[in-house]
């Protein structure tokens, strides 16, 4: 039997309340570093366009890592580009 509407998404993971912002950012940073290492390791076992695609994903992960690190270390008041 085919249902007319799909099941709503199920929440598999949650973040516990009471964790400091700094701890959350550290965990985020470590998770991104792990994802980057995994994607790079996998990419180097591929060839051609699939390798390039996965290296592109690794680059996006690295960008997210840089953003998370900037938030974590703080960089003073926001400035606007001239």
UniProtKB/TrEMBL annotation:
Pfam families: DUF6124
Domain of life: Bacteria
The name this protein goes by in its record: DUF3077 domain-containing protein
Source species of the chain: Pseudomonas cremoris
């Amino acid at each position: 039997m085919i249902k007319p509407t799909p099941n709503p998404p199920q929440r598999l993971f949650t973040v516990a309340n009471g964790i400091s912002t700094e701890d959350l950012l550290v965990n985020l940073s470590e998770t991104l570093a792990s994802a980057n290492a995994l994607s790079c390791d996998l990419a180097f076992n591929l060839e051609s366009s699939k390798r390039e695609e996965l290296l592109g994903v690794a680059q996006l992960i690295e960008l997210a890592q840089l953003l998370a690190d900037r938030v974590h270390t703080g960089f003073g008041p926001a400035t606007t580009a001239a």
